[in-house]
Amino acid sequence: MMSEFDVVTGAFGYTGKYIARRLLSAGRQVKTLTGHPLRPNPFGDQISVAPFNFDNPRELVRDLSGAITLYNTYWVRFDRGQVTFDRAVANSAVLFSAAAEAGVQRIVHISIANPSKDSPLPYYRGKALVEEAVLESGLSYAILRPTFIFGIEDILLNNIAWFLRRFPLFLVPGSGEYRVQPIFAEDVAGLAVTAGGHRENLTMDMAGPEVFTFNQLLRMVARSVGSKARILHVPPGLALFFSKLAGVLTGDVVLTPDEVRGLMADLLISGEPAKGTTALSQWIAQNAAELGSRYTSELKQHYR
Q: What angle do CA 25, 65, 62 make, to 5 degrees?
C-alpha cells in the first residue's frame, strides 16, 4: 500500500512524463493511469501503473484512493475509430467523478489556450467541456492552459524539423503570418507541480516568453537544422491534402483541419503575461542536432 502519493495520467506519454519526473525529483510518490499499461515503464519501479478503466469506475476509485493530487493530461488529438473527442469528454467526467469519490484533494488539469464551448473546432470545444467537468467535480482545481508545448518529443516542432531536414519543399497553409507562443515542457511541469501545492482554485494560461509568426518559427528551425527546403505558401486545403500524402509516407496523421484552423486563428498565443521562462530560440540553438532527427508518430504513441 502506497503512503501519500500523486496520480499523473499519461506518465508514459509527453507532458505527463515531464510532470511525473518533476514530482519524483521533489520526493513525491507517483502512480500513473495510462491507456497503455503493458508498455515498458520508463520509470522502472519509481512509479506504479494502473489502466484508465473508464468503463469500470469502481476500479478507478480504487486506483485513485489515497491520492492527494490528480495531474490530468488525458486527451486525444483527433477522432479515430472509437477514440473520439466526445468519448474523451465523457471519459474525463468519469475520471473526475471517481477522483472526488476517492477523496482526491485537488485536480491539476492541463487544458489548452483559448478553449470555448462555442468554438467551431471540435478540439477546442471538447477542451472547454472537459474544463466544465473539472468545475462540476467540486474538487479544488487548477486549470492550466498551455499554448503549444515544445520539447524533443513533441509532435509539432519536432516533426516540422524532421520534414525540413528531409524534403526540398515545405508547404505552409495561408500567409504564415499567424502567431505562436511556445512554452517548454519543463516549464509546464514546474508550473503544474507548483499549482498542485496550493489549494485555491485557479485558471491560467501558460505561454513562453517569445512570440513568433509561423514564418519566423519555420525560418529559425530551418536555419538551426541546416535545411535548404523551399518554403511555399499555399491555400489551407492544399496544405491539408499534401499532409495526407505525407501521412501515407509516415504511417501517421501529420496535420488535422482543427490544427490548421486553430493555428491560423491565432489560438496558439495568450493574452496573459508569459508564465514560462525558457526561450524557444535559445533552446533550439542548444538542441539543433537532435531536433527532428527522428519522426514522432502520434498514431504509434497513442492510438496503437
A: 120
- Whole-angstrom distance, CA of residue 125 vs CA of residue 36: 26
What does the block give as the cell for 143?
A: 486549470
Could you tell me the pTM of the whole model? Answer: 0.95
DSSP string, 70-82: EEE----SS-BTT
SS3 content of the chain, % helix, strand, coil (to 5): 40, 20, 40
The secondary element (H helix, E strand) that includes residue 30 is: strand 29-34
pLDDT at site 298:
85
DSSP 135-178: HHT-SEEEEEEES-EESTT-SHHHHHHHHHHH-SEEEEETTS--
Residue 260 is which amino acid? V
- Yes or no: say if 74 and 107 are a contact pair by the CB < 8 Å rule: no
- pLDDT tens for each residue of 34-71: 998 888 899 989 999 999 999 999 999 999 999 999 99
pLDDT digits (tens, 9 = 90+) for 152-208: 888 899 999 999 999 999 999 999 999 999 999 999 999 999 999 999 999 999 999
The C-alpha cell at 31 is 502512480
Query: What kind and span of H or E run contains 51?
Result: strand 47-51
Pairing of strands 29-34, 47-51: parallel
3-state secondary structure at position 215: helix
Are 101 and 122 within 8 A, CB to CB? no
Q: Quick one: which of 36, 119, 38, 136 has its CA closest to 85?
A: 119
Measured from the Cβ of residue 153, the count of other Cβ atoms closer than 10 Å reads: 16
The residue among 204, 220, 224 whose CA lies nearest residue 212 is 220
Set out the domains of the chain in order of their start, with CATH numbers. Answer: 5-149+182-206 (3.40.50.720), 151-180+210-303 (3.90.25)
